[in-house]
Predict the structure of C-X-C chemokine receptor type 6.
Amino acid sequence: MAEYNYEDYNSSYESSREEHQQFLQFKKVFLPCTYLVVFIGGLVGNSLVLVISIFYHRLQSLTDVFLVNLPLADLVFVCTLPFWAYAGIREWVFGKAMCKTLLGIYTINFYTSMLILTCITVDRFTAVVKATKAYNQQAKRMTWGKVTSLLIWVISLLVSLPQIIYGNVFNLDKLICGYHNEEISTVVLATQMTLGFFLPLLAMIVCYSVIIKTLLHARGFQKHRSLKIIFLVMAVFLVTQTPFNLVKLIRSTQWEYDAMTSFQYAIVVTEAIAYLRACLNPVLYAFVSLKFRKNFWKLVKDIGCLPYLGVSHQWKSSEDNSKTCSASHNVEATSIFQL
């Protein structure tokens, strides 16, 4: 009996070691590759949104204010990913000061991005449900938008301080950058779950529910398109953010899962999916706008990437369609169109 248990233990131990080695190889390839893909996609998409918002939109509305801050936060966020990719392939070689700096930058921009998404949701709610009031108070809303954006960056810095202060380089088989403090980890997780998931999710559920109800009673050619955009925004947020946050929540309550190789796979894969938001945000929050797409073609024409005539014909067609469909001076329809 003792001999049987001993052999079974050895067999199980060898099997676990083999599975763990396979996981380390998978992580060594999968995570850096994902980081680089998100880095390239996020760099291109968010840079385009930032350039168009600053030089073509020129901050004419509250939406434009948020569409400067969102890609800026995502852009700085993705610029930290090559460092984490290299550290995943080899080890952390950038030193303690760089570790604290990149942890801080990464965290600040994560919170900023999520809080700006929340503000965009509330802004859409105001523009559709309280269209007349929003139109009449546009200048005031612009001021509040700029103040809110500044407060978001300050709040993000403050809630990121624990990771900046306690961030360090540890030797665990290889050098890694992180923070290993149970109390700090609990505080960080609670803050991430609250500001980075539950708050945006609650804002989306409440605001978009009322917006959908308003749209269903509205008239206009843009109603069905606006509903599709809302459902797409909700679906992308839930698909990309829910799995990773759920896995983190499970790990915080059941630490024994950390020893399971299958659970480690879940952490790595869901983290990679969560980071895709940095690539998808430009599409969901900028390129769905006709005005933004027209300015994009203007940018393409200005830098000489496409023949002038081909682009101008597309502008002409888009403008004619827009004028034909927007003949009504209905403020509500205009607000729906901005979704």
The chain has 13 helices and two strands.
